[in-house]
Amino acid sequence: MTMAKPKAPRRTLESYSVKHMNKPIKAGDCVLMRPSEPSKPSYVARIEGIEADSRGANVKIHVRWYYRPEESLGGRRQFHGSKEVFLSDHFDVQSTDTIEAKCIVHSFKSYTKLDAVGNDDFFCRFEYNSSTGAFNPDRVAVYCKCEMPYNPDDLMVQCEGCSDWFHPACIDMTVEEAQRLDHFFCEGCSVEGQKQLQNAHSATRPSDTKVDTKRRRR
């Protein structure tokens, strides 16, 4: 009778240097991972832990996947940004060989404050339950006449009367016309607003989810 060979103990690593990357990875970092098919975009994941065998080889990473909108049960919708991802409840163990690069998953608020968006910049405003398709939070603020959540890829203009934000197309305006505006009053505020218009004030970014009148670079 032969005894089963005991499983070699594995140890947790504080950090690990991936061969083709200049920076080491550690728990809490976000990474781009090689997709199952070359035609698909890279997977986005957050590293939960790193472990190796007793010799420091055979390194594996424990990850929590981010889902892209098109990977969710509801699919991609109009208000989803091109760089939006959802933090899922899907955990996995992967080889470090599948890591392509490090990336940054910003909060929605910090993403909207970026001067420029790079290839490695993403944002997350929802957690996603992969089995039920439910989102947390299940409600977010909506804007404009169309009552849609904010998509940071879209240009919006703010009414100086009610402070709501509007898509140019929803107020019969082109993007070019919106970019040339010094002042804007929505239909409901226009008469009263024109009476009260004083000196132009500098545009300010909204404190929460409403964002400025410039389309951000992808």
TrEMBL record:
GO terms for biological process: negative regulation of gene expression, epigenetic; regulation of photoperiodism, flowering; vegetative to reproductive phase transition of meristem. Keywords: Metal-binding, Zinc, Zinc-finger. GO terms for cellular component: nucleus. One of its GO terms (molecular function) is histone H3K4me3 reader activity. InterPro entries: BAH_dom, BAH_sf, Zinc_finger_PHD-type_CS, Znf_FYVE_PHD, Znf_PHD, Znf_PHD-finger, Znf_RING/FYVE/PHD. Residues 141-192 form the PHD-type domain. Residues 23-139 form the BAH domain. Pfam families: BAH, PHD. Residues 197-218 are annotated as: Disordered. The keyword Chaperone does not apply. The keyword Repeat does not apply. Residues 197-206 have a biased composition (Polar residues). This is Chromatin remodeling protein SHL-like. It comes from Pisum sativum.
